[in-house]
Specification:
3 helices; about 10% strand
């Protein structure tokens, strides 16, 4: 999966979401900005770009199995 871009900066679904949720809690980012950023995170289909769940999916595919898209 391709990383997203928010206001000219690359963002991922793992680290980006945690960092931004902390910014919302600290009051440095609004809920509306957070929602906008979330809508920009995934630019393509595919596995998670943070390689947490993607590593599991890669292993399953290497074994010749996989879930329907």
């Amino acid at each position: 999966m391709l990383n997203g871009r928010y206001r000219g900066k690359p963002i991922g679904s793992g680290t980006g979401i945690w960092q931004m949720s902390e910014e919302v809690r600290a009051g440095t980012m609004t809920q509306e900005e957070f929602t906008e950023a979330q809508s920009c995170m995934n630019r393509s289909r595919g596995h998670c770009m943070t390689m947490g769940t993607a590593s599991m999916a890669s292993m399953v595919e290497a074994l010749g199995m996989g879930l329907a898209a």
